[in-house]
Amino acid sequence: MRNVHNRENRTLYVTAFGTGPYVCGMCDEPLDMLEVIHHVDEDRENNRLDNLMACHDLCHQRHHHVGLIHTEETKRRIRATLREKYESGERSKPDLAAEKNPFYGKSHSEETKKKISDAKRGVPTGRKPPGMTGMRHSEETKKRMSEAAKERWRIRKETDSNV
Fold it and tell me: Is the pTM of this model over 0.85?
């Protein structure tokens, strides 16, 4: 459904504002292409031109998901919607009973565990930086990073003392 809305909004936006060039309404940087149309008032049904804003996909994701904390009203609406879907049969409640899990009481063989481990090696998890998982910095690189950090602190101290 999301793609249908987005396609309609793109068509509406291009019809009203032409084929570009566009500027991201969130970061004011140029857009290479029309990536996402954002609804300023968060109402996807409100397609008034003053409510539509072109933006980068990443800016749009950050806007909607970083530090997202639902208000009590939003939580209430989500619960009500889910309740309606469960009651109508459109969505089934997850069955959390362990016995019904097809893997219940089983475990992976050592060979399978090794395959899973090998497949995950290099895949970022948690807070690890994506490019360095399973790798180590050389001593030379550590030294350069340390010097750069010391320089940043020196500049910060000078800046703070001048204020």
Answer: no
